[in-house]
């Protein structure tokens, strides 16, 4: 509508040329790398197949062999850009809010550091993918941080068939027609006391094995849900987890005079960003204690 580009022309052209040159080189020289661009190129040729049973177990739409997709080079560039931005921007935002919450909630920080120390002793300081994935409290902390401060506070979806939402209480019903756009307020769902008691309180125990089954489906969606959920969510989660393990194994996070304990969002950002930024103290740990 306003013809305002999402990215400046220089970085946008650089990324576009980089991806297109990469595609041409792979096609010309028969180079195969098991990465996202390769998967998109396979999808364009109709050669993308399901590799494991895991997709079926998780309920993903993954037929045995997909038909050809009408993907242009520009489409592949766009998907690569979304993956890049979703992976890095989401991870940095997640890390900022998680470190803030851990500094303010020292008990949770101490418990997480204890789990990190145990993992490092058991693995001989060898931080691996498998070791990170086995850390239950780390996952609980990340999950609760994403509930309190989702990196993206809303997502939209285009209606593909007429649908009516019935009236409830004082709320009137809503009728959607084809091509109507529904805006889903993630932050509103995550902070609704009907779904999460004491919603403003940081409580990783909400996501313990005993409690997470009580979370009502479709009320927790930090990366969206379904086929069009955030393409970089697993990448972002692993980045954030690894960074937290390295950081908290060496340092403790402290509240300082400039720390704003109760965060207020800035009105000058498209994503939930605190007024005045993040300010924390970092104290070197003595893991011998």
Automatic annotation (TrEMBL):
<dbReference type="InterPro" id="IPR001128">
    <property type="entry name" value="Cyt_P450"/>
</dbReference>
<keyword id="KW-0479">Metal-binding</keyword>
<dbReference type="GO" id="GO:0005789">
    <property type="term" value="C:endoplasmic reticulum membrane"/>
</dbReference>
<protein>
    <recommendedName>
        <fullName>Cytochrome P450</fullName>
    </recommendedName>
</protein>
<dbReference type="GO" id="GO:0005506">
    <property type="term" value="F:iron ion binding"/>
</dbReference>
<dbReference type="Pfam" id="PF00067">
    <property type="entry name" value="p450"/>
</dbReference>
<comment type="similarity">
    <text>Belongs to the cytochrome P450 family.</text>
</comment>
<dbReference type="InterPro" id="IPR050476">
    <property type="entry name" value="Insect_CytP450_Detox"/>
</dbReference>
<keyword id="KW-0472">Membrane</keyword>
<dbReference type="InterPro" id="IPR002401">
    <property type="entry name" value="Cyt_P450_E_grp-I"/>
</dbReference>
<dbReference type="InterPro" id="IPR036396">
    <property type="entry name" value="Cyt_P450_sf"/>
</dbReference>
<feature type="binding site" description="axial binding residue">
    <location>
        <position position="230"/>
    </location>
    <ligand>
        <name>heme</name>
    </ligand>
</feature>
<dbReference type="GO" id="GO:0020037">
    <property type="term" value="F:heme binding"/>
</dbReference>
<feature type="compositionally biased region" description="Basic and acidic residues">
    <location>
        <begin position="48"/>
        <end position="59"/>
    </location>
</feature>
<keyword id="KW-0256">Endoplasmic reticulum</keyword>
<keyword id="KW-0503">Monooxygenase</keyword>
<keyword id="KW-0492">Microsome</keyword>
<dbReference type="GO" id="GO:0004497">
    <property type="term" value="F:monooxygenase activity"/>
</dbReference>
<keyword id="KW-0560">Oxidoreductase</keyword>
<feature type="region of interest" description="Disordered">
    <location>
        <begin position="48"/>
        <end position="67"/>
    </location>
</feature>
<dbReference type="GO" id="GO:0016705">
    <property type="term" value="F:oxidoreductase activity, acting on paired donors, with incorporation or reduction of molecular oxygen"/>
</dbReference>
<keyword id="KW-0349">Heme</keyword>
<dbReference type="InterPro" id="IPR017972">
    <property type="entry name" value="Cyt_P450_CS"/>
</dbReference>
<keyword id="KW-0408">Iron</keyword>
